[in-house]
Amino acid sequence: MQQTPPHAAATPESKESSTEAPPKQVAQAMDRLAHAGRLIADIRLGADRLLEALFVSAQPHQSSKPLQLIVKEEASMRQCLQDLRTVDNQCNAFLQYTDATSMSMLICWFRVLSII
Fold first, then answer.
1. Are 87 and 36 in contact (CB under 8 A)?
2. How many CA atoms lie within 13 A of 74 on its CB side?
């Protein structure tokens, strides 16, 4: 009969604890989500500015200023959307290595941020 080594008995416990995210990674993920929230707010502000510029440009006798504003806001929103995609990819990479509890918590935070 073979006896199992003492460290083999601890293996299930170590597997369970290895799926939990370290506090540093959780903090980084929370920072990324906060950054995503700021990006979403910037995108919403940019959309408001675009609508305002479109409204102003529809008025008769307007200068090229509304057109310049539209071009500027469009570029800004594109950059914010690209940054948001990057944050999304970083968060998805983090979520692949965490347990279900951490994942649920982060998804809830992201949903809260997207509502703001």
1. yes
2. 8
Q: How would you label 52-65 residue by residue, b for 16+ Cβ within 10 Å and e otherwise?
A: ebeeeeeeeeeeee
The answer for residues whose C-beta is within 8 angstroms of residue 104's C-beta and 6 or more apart is none
| Residues 10, 15: Cα–Cα separation, whole Å | 9
Query: In terms of residues, how long is the chain?
Result: 116
- What are 12-65's pLDDT values in tens digits? 444 444 456 677 877 887 888 888 888 888 988 998 988 888 888 888 776 778
pLDDT in tens, 62-107: 677 888 888 888 899 899 889 988 888 877 776 666 665 666 666 6
Based on the number of CB atoms within 10 Å of its own CB, is 25 exposed (0-12), middle (13-18) or buried (19 or more)?
middle
DSSP 38-51: HHHHHHHHHHHHHH
